[in-house]
Amino acid sequence: MNITLNFEWIEAVMLASVRIVAFVAVAPPFSYNGFPLRIKGMLAIGLALAVSPRVTPDYVASGTAEYIGALLLEIVVGGVLGFLVMLVFAAVQSAGNLIDMFGGFQMAQAFDPQAMLNGAQFTRLYHMTALALLFASGGYQLLFGGLFRTFDAIPLGAGLDLAWSADAITNGIGQTLLAAVQIAGPLIVVLFLADAGLGLLTRVAPALNAFALGFPLKIFLTLTLGSIAFIALPRVVSALTGQAVTQLIGVK
Asked: Which residues, other chains included, contact 53 with Cβ-Cβ below 8 Å and sequence gap of 6+?
């Protein structure tokens, strides 16, 4: 029995799987260490097989050296795309970090080896909630859809435009900081006004030692108003998912 192998198809699928593996290793929610590496690899191979009808017809086989270079380029492309998605969703984590810092929870920070982040309660709570909402709302499917479209904009082995990558990363960092302030801004303003009010009360009545009440008051305000801000996270994650898909579709 003779078995004929289509080496061009195999090479194209391998290149596609390398890009997807690099993307899954960096982009949330797939980068969470709670998912075994075996599952991530199987997911990447399955997605590469699913996208093979789109990438294999135009692929032309190359030599060994060129193919190794194409593999390295696909790792870079997948990593950059995953990093852009990670920047978008880092806004939720940064918002939780701001709430911890202004609310007095920063002293209780700890390292989470699963999420690979160092933060206090609200940082980890917002991060885990964003991951759960991505799976519950089907946002991960939109991310995969955006990733599949990158194969049309960036053929296998083509590489990224460095100028576009630098500009996208710079804009992504700025948008992350802006989104974090927008998410945590109302609560930060309330906590700042509480500090200002305690300062004025101390000036009026120095013997009262109003700052001794500052920590429990800020913790109470953070827990009360933080729960209200927590309700808005589904809409925030939905908007961030759309922004991440737009970043993926606009690759060059």
From this structure: none
Nearest to 164 by CA among 252, 79, 85: 252
Between CA 248 and CA 244 the distance in angstroms is: 6
What are the pLDDT digits (tens) for 22-71?
A: 888 888 888 877 778 888 888 888 888 888 887 777 767 777 788 788 88
Measure the CA–CA gap between 61 and 115, rounded to whole angstroms. 39
C-alpha 216, offset from chain centre:
33
The pLDDT value recorded for residue 210 is 67
Collapsing DSSP to helix, strand or coil, 145 comes out as: helix
Give φ, ψ of 196 to 5 degrees: -65, -40
Whether the predicted pLDDT of 242 surpasses 60 = yes
Classify burial at 212, counting beta carbons within 10 Å of its beta carbon; exposed 0-12, middle 13-18, buried 19 or more: exposed
DSSP 21-88: HHHHHHSTTTT-TTS-HHHHHHHHHHHHHHHHHHHSTT-----HHHHHHHHHHHHHHHHHHHHHHHHH
Report the candidate in 189, 185, 209, 186 with the shortest Cα–Cα distance to residue 199: 209
Cis peptide before 36 (omega within 30 of 0): no
Task: Check: CB of residue 77 under 8 Å from CB of residue 159.
Answer: yes
What is the structure's pLDDT at 193?
82
Residue 220's alpha-carbon distances to 77, 89, 96, 225, in angstroms, are 46, 27, 16, 8
What the block records as the tokens of 111 is 């390292």
- The domain segmentation of the chain, as residue ranges, is 7-249
- Closest residue by Cα to residue 88 from 128, 28, 147: 28
